[in-house]
Amino acid sequence: MRNFKNILVTGGAGFIGSNFIHYLFEKTSFKGNIINVDKLTYAGNLNNLKNIEDKLGNRYFFEHIDICDKEGIDKIFQDHSIDCVVHFAAESHVDRSILGPKEFIDTNILGTFNLLEVARKYWLNDNKSGKDFLFHHISTDEVFGSLGETGYFYEDTAYDPRSPYSASKASSDHLVKAYYHTYGLPITISNSTNNYGAYQFPEKLLPVMIGNIVNEKKLPVYGDGKNIRDWLFVEDHCSAILKIIQKGTIGETYNVGGENEWTNIDLINVLCEKIAKIKNKNAEHYKELITFVKDRSGHDRRYAINCDKLKNELGWKQSVNFSEGLDLTIDWYLNNQKWIDDIKNESYRDWIKANYENR
Ligand code: NAD
Ligand code: TYD
Q: Lesser CB count within 10 Å: N end or C end of the chain?
């Protein structure tokens, strides 16, 4: 088993990255240090890590750096003797990638390339001393394209990305694999399904819907609402990542999934019912807010993943069932109004206005 001492987490102020930092420090016996490199885009929020900074100042370090900044990243590797990279940093929202793909190309492709170049240099130095080194790349099931009513994505399914977001992630996956095959850089990759849980920026389906239900605003459902996503509790994704960085086979890809497919409309109905119970209201009152709006361009119909490799080879299993996970998530959003208010700054409000209001 590999035990790393200085883990560089990129994008650690975002949704999954911050959950991963909480998970490592609070729910595992991890003894090392974490260096969180984040550009703090609209999606990066240091409030996600406030108690970690307060409690673990001697083992947690935040560096406000763009992954495209080669000198900055080089200095991080040098100053912190990085032996593992867990690369979350990305532009992550499909709708934004349709409106403006450039940042997706810059961060997801060029930023990953930049990290790989610096990692390769330091790995070559370390390699001489025989120490473990790993570059773990976080990716998505969206690189595989869209499924019909049946079938699953496997690790060897051909890539077929459809949105600028998924195309940029596919490109970064290929680069990471190329650095393994060409230079021997020790890498692993995980392709995960849709995550849900605390600290998710309220532009993605679950936090948008929870917020709108509570505030009795329209619930914008794209198209016919029958698109299917496979939902995974974010902490279960984090436990999968830890298993892969500790025990995954170098050069390999692992699919991570919730084995939990829902149409968007069914899921929104469940959210209405759960929140109605908490608020002592009639669920029908919330369901009347459901509003079918113009579909997303190129909207992928169905994602579903087979993650037998992760389960059989590495012994991973999920710890939270969907109903519990939804309860925890709804609870978190209801109890963290200040977190929501804090991110609702000017630029966020402009974005919401342009894209979600009055549709
Ligand atoms: P997020 O948008 O919540 O967070 C992204 C983080 O990256 C933010 O903190 C942001 O400030 C940072 N960042 C963006 N550009 C940067 C740059 N140039 N330099 C440094 N930092 C930068 O995203 P997320 O949902 O936490 O996703 C994390 C990773 O997981 C992404 O790579 C995404 O593709 C992948 N993924 C997400 C999901 C999901 O359901 N959210 C599913 C599968 C895979
Ligand atoms: P999203 O959370 O953006 O994740 P992704 O597109 O990466 O899967 O969207 C999940 C699904 O929910 C997707 O089919 C689009 C749909 N959706 C809506 O119907 N309404 C919304 O307001 C949002 C944000 C998403």
A: N
Q: Which domains does the chain have, with CATH numbers?
A: 6-356 (3.40.50.720)
| Residues β-bridged to residue 62 | 36
Q: Is the pTM of this model over 0.85?
A: yes
Can you tell me which residue has the tokens 């069914």? 266
Note if 23 is an active site residue.
Answer: no
Say if residues 314 and 242 touch (Cβ distance below 8 Å).
no
Q: How far is CA 269 from the centre of its chain?
A: 24
Q: In the numeric block, which tokens belong to residue 157? A: 């399914």
Query: How does DSSP assign 164-221, residue by residue?
Result: HHHHHHHHHHHHHHHHHHHH---EEEEEE-EEESTT--TTSHHHHHHHHHHTT--EEE
Give yes or no: 165 in active site: yes
Protein residue with least CA distance to atom 10, ligand 2: 205
Question: Could you tell me the distance, in angstroms and rounded to a whole number, from the CA of residue 297 to the centre of ligand 2?
Answer: 12
